[in-house]
Design goal:
By secondary structure, the protein is of the alpha/beta class. The protein has 9 helices and 9 strands. It is about 40% helix and about 20% strand.
Length: about 220
């Protein structure tokens, strides 16, 4: 969705979407990396003006920010190694499981109360999903819960190194988060995103990064 490439430049699907939206709105856009668990504070302080990086729309987050209409529908998947004996969520009992700190994955797992009770003592939080995936590969974890869009993109870059379980922790929508008071900005950004969906530009960006159209119309 957004990451630094070999040239240390911030690139990704969400980055391209944001650039196109900014161009249509006639404004400049600056990308700034932040700590994900401090995203609301960064937004409220004015250090950033939008959170646009695979941000899941949740009822709890709606209390603190304005969301655009969803542009992607996502799931929280469970990733293991190919030879793992983990086949279902029940098999996660007693296993070390990685998850990104302050992410919607945490909320999704906690919402599945039966599974959460089995695994809560073995959930390990990581600053980023890729760090969790690397630890899984290295043997420090037995599973990772991650956004499907992010997880499958990572897996595509490491073929045959991971396996995705059929069971998951539910469906969710991605949107752009803005300050509650930024109603004009919210309206203008919404118009730009709607136009990008309608004229096919959003689909074009999706095809570039994922090889398929995953835009929620």
């Amino acid at each position: 969705m957004g990451f630094r490439d070999e040239k240390n430049e911030i690139v990704g699907f969400d980055i391209d979407l944001a650039k196109e939206a900014a161009k249509r709105m006639g404004i400049d856009v600056k990308f700034q990396a932040i700590s994900w668990d401090a995203k609301e504070a960064e937004l409220d302080s004015g250090n950033i003006d939008a959170i646009w990086n695979g941000l899941t729309i949740t009822e709890e987050r709606k209390k603190n920010m304005l969301f655009t209409a969803p542009y992607i529908q996502d799931r929280q998947i469970i990733v293991v190694l190919p030879d793992s004996d983990i086949k279902t969520k029940a098999d996660l009992n007693g296993k070390k499981i990685g998850i990104q700190i302050a992410s919607s994955a945490v909320e999704a797992v906690e919402a599945d109360k039966a599974t959460y009770e089995l695994i809560k003592d073995n959930l390990l939080e990581f600053d980023t999903n890729d760090l969790a995936m690397r630890d899984l590969k290295g043997g420090g974890l037995q599973a990772v819960v991650v956004d499907e869009v992010v997880g499958r993109y990572y897996i595509s870059k490491h073929p045959n190194e991971y396996r995705v379980l059929e069971e998951n922790f539910g469906v969710e929508d991605f949107g752009v988060g803005l300050r509650l008071g930024d109603k004009t900005f919210h309206a203008e950004l919404g118009k730009a995103l709607s136009a990008m969906k309608a004229d096919g530009k959003a689909t074009e960006i999706s095809q570039k990064w994922f090889g398929e159209d995953i835009i929620k119309k």
